Amino acid sequence: MLVLALSDAHIPDRAIDLPSKFKKLLGVSNKISQVILLGNCTKSYEFLKFVNEVSSNVVIVRGEYDNGLLPVSKHSRARESIPINTVVRQGAFKIGCCSGYTVVPKNDPLSLLALARQLDVDILLWGGTHNVEAFTLEGKFFVNPGSCTGAFNTDWPFSTEDEDKQDETEGMQNQDEETDQTAEIGQQQEKEEKDQKNMQDQNQDQNQENQTHEKGNDEEINRDQGQNKSEEEGKEPVEDDLELSELDIDGSNTPSFCLLDIQSSTCTLYIYIYIDGEVKVDKVVYQKED
Amino acid sequence: MSYSETLEQALIVVRQQAVLMQKCIQQRKLMDALKHASMMLTELRKPDLSPKQYYELYIMVFDSLSLLSSYLTDNHPKIHHLADLYELVQYAGNVVPRLYLMITVGTSYLKCTDSPREEILKDMIEMCRGVQNPMRGLFLRYYLSQRTKQLLPDNAIEFNSNFVINNFIEMNKLWVRLQHQGPLKEREQRTKERKELQILIGSQLVRLSQIVDDNLVIYKDNMLPVILEQVVQCRDVVSQEYLLDVVCQVFPDEFHLSTLDSLLGSTLHMNPDVSINKNVLTLIDRLNGYIDRKEQEQEQDTIQGNSNLFEVFWNYLKTLNEERPDLSLHQFIPLVESIMALSLRWYPDNLSNLNILYGFTAQKCRDYGRAIPQNAEYLFANLLILQNFRHVNRSAALFYNIISQCDAFRELLSLQNMVLQKNIIDTLLDILLSASRENEILFVIDSKASLEKLLSVMEPLIRFRVTSTTRRFSNDALGLSDDLTEDEEGNSSWVLDPSQEKLAQFCHLSLRLLPIECKQYLNVENQVEYLLLLRNWYYRGDKNIKYTYPAIISNFWKLIRKSYLLKTRQKLSRKTENDYSNMIKQLFKYASRCINDLFNVCGSSVIDTVYKLNIQSASLADQLSIGEIAYDFFSQAFTVFEESLSDLKTQFQALVYMIQSLQKTRSLYQENYYDTLIVRCTLHGSRLLRKQDQCRAVYLCSHLWWATEIAVIGEEEGTTADFYREGKRVLECLQRSLRVADSTMDNIQSCQLMVEILNRCLYYFIHGDEHDTHVSVKYINGLIELIKTNLRSLKLEEQIPEQQQSTTRLQDLHIDGQDSTELSSRKKFVMGLDGTYIEIPRTNGSPASISNKLNSMYINEMIYIPLEHFDRTCEYIVNQREIDDRFKVIVV
Question: Which parts of B664-815 fold into alpha helices (H)?
Answer without folding.
Answer: 673-686, 691-701, 727-742, 747-767, 770-773, 777-796, 800-812
